[in-house]
Design a protein that fits this description.
The chain has about 270 residues and is of the alpha/beta class. It has a single domain, classed as 3-Layer(aba) Sandwich (Rossmann fold), CATH 3.40.50.1820. It contains 9 helices and 8 strands. It has an 8-stranded mixed β-sheet, with helices on both faces. The mean pLDDT is about 95.
């Protein structure tokens, strides 16, 4: 990608002696690093947090086109340049989960562990060409609703209003094309393993998490542990529904601690 680099938010600002490992937070489609604003305040200062804007999103709107492969390459560059020790724990929600799996397969050398939530098997049904327009219309409806109504409709998730220009037709076509044609490849060697989460109250399917885990671990020679878990009280956007829980569960996974009891093995 030449000299192109992704803009990012950093917490705490700059590397400090109190931080001992880096966590990279990857947002969903038509969003930005600001998606994580409710979550980052719940991480202790011992974690160095990087939250980039993905290509065609937020401050990276002019980095085009959007593909999973170039997004993963740019994230890998970010980790090498800015993460402590040039490696990081990768957290991806929704579209960010799709990018996390590209990192697992093609850039595992910069990855300490992966926490992926909301990965979806899209496939290519006959109506795939219609999806970008449908989702743009859905976004317009969501933005027009009072936040209290939308929060009720999304299981308590504090969904932000879209930033101006965040749903251009080109982006909608590109990210739908990317996820609908993605072939999840076996993960390389990742010391902390991979967790795939399905938040099944609204939006996610446990069968998708099981499918992703099966594909990620199909090359047993890598030695990377992969788990698939589901939670029936959380919604697809649970980083906005229960941000404190989100931060705590991410840290539990990174530190190798048991997850809360309502996270169930779905394999």
């Amino acid at each position: 990608m030449g000299d192109i680099s992704l803009p990012f938010d950093e917490f705490p600002v700059g590397h400090t002696q109190s931080t001992n490992t880096t966590i990279v937070l990857l947002h969903g489609a038509c969003s930005s690093a600001g998606e994580w604003d409710l979550v980052v305040k719940h991480f202790s200062s011992s974690y160095h947090i990087l939250a980039p804007d993905l290509p065609r999103h937020g401050r990276a709107r002019n980095i085009i086109p959007f593909t999973l492969s170039n997004s993963a390459q740019l994230i890998a560059n970010l980790v090498r340049d800015h993460a402590l020790g040039g490696r990081a724990h990768i957290v991806g929600f929704s579209l960010g989960a799709h990018i996390a799996f590209e990192l697992a397969a093609h850039h595992s050398g910069v990855v300490l562990s992966i926490f992926a939530s909301g990965w979806r098997y899209w496939g290519q049904p006959w109506y795939t060409p219609l999806i970008p327009s449908v989702l743009r219309f859905q976004g317009m409806i969501e933005d027009s609703l009072p936040r209290s109504w939308l929060k009720l409709a999304t299981g308590g998730a504090d969904i932000r209003r879209s930033e101006p220009g965040s749903r251009p037709p080109e982006l909608m076509r590109e990210w739908i094309a990317a996820v609908s044609t993605q072939v999840v490849e076996p993960a390389g060697s990742i010391p902390g393993g991979i967790l795939v989460v399905a938040a099944t109250l609204l939006g996610d399917k446990a069968q998708d998490a099981k499918m992703a885990a099966r594909m990620l671990r199909s090359d047993s020679a890598s030695g990377t542990g992969v788990k698939a878990m589901s939670n029936g009280r959380l919604t697809h956007a649970w980083n906005r529904q229960d941000p404190e829980l989100c931060a705590n569960v991410i840290v539990d996974w990174i530190e190798g601690r048991p997850l809360p009891k309502d996270f169930l093995d779905c394999e």
